[in-house]
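To: structure desk
From: M.T.
Subject: fold request, one chain
Message: Could you run this one when you get a chance? Sequence is below, nothing fancy, just the single chain.
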Amino acid sequence: MLRAATWPALVTFDIVARMWTLLGSTSRYRAHRLADSDAAQQARQAAEARLRAIAQTYASSTPLVLRLVVVEDGCTPGTVGWDLFTPVKPAYRVSCEMRLQAYYSSPLPSAETITRILAAGEQALSGIPFTHGDAHEDAPGEMTQAEHTLTWDQPGSRVPEPERPAGAHRFDREPPMMSVNGIRRRHGTVFALSLPPEHYYRVPR
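Reply: Done. C-alpha cells follow.
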C-alpha cells in the first residue's frame, strides 16, 4: 500500500521538478544571445588582452620564448539546482569564463631558466608571482603560485598537448599549426604556463 501511494507522488514531483528546471533555467538560445551581446564581446576582448599581457610578461622578463598560445572560452547558461526537494535558482542567467595556456622554450638549461624566472618575480611590479622566497615544486617540473602554474618537461614526463575541454565554445591556437611536440623538436624543453581563469562576463538574474 505504501509503495502504491508513494509512486504517484514521485511521478508528480518529477514532473514538477522538470517544469521548475525548464522555467527557471536560461535557455540555450537566450544564453547564446547574451554571450554574443556587445557588452559580452567587449568584456571578452578585454579579458583576452589581460591574459595575453601576462603571458607576454614572462617572455619579456625571463629567458622564456613564447611559442604557442591557447585560449579557451565558454559561456554557461544558468540552470536551476535542487537542495533536496527545494529548487535553487541560479545566480546568473549566463556566466562566461576564459582560460589561457602559454607554451615556451628557453635557450638556457631548465634549472637556470627557473632561477631567472624566480629572479624576475622578485622585481617590483613584475607581474610574475614566483620568487626565491616562496618557490617550491609541487611535483617534479611543476610550480604553482597565485594560481599561476608553470610546468616543464621532465625525463619520462613531458608537457602534454592542449586538449579542447568539453563545453568550450572557442578553442584558439596561435599559431594555428603549432604543437607542443613541434616546439620540443625545434627548441628542446617545453615550458607551459596556465593562468587563472577570467570570469569576464556574468548577467545576474
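Reply (cont.): The helical segments are 2-24, 28-35, 38-61, 110-121, 180-187. Let me know if you need anything else for the meeting.
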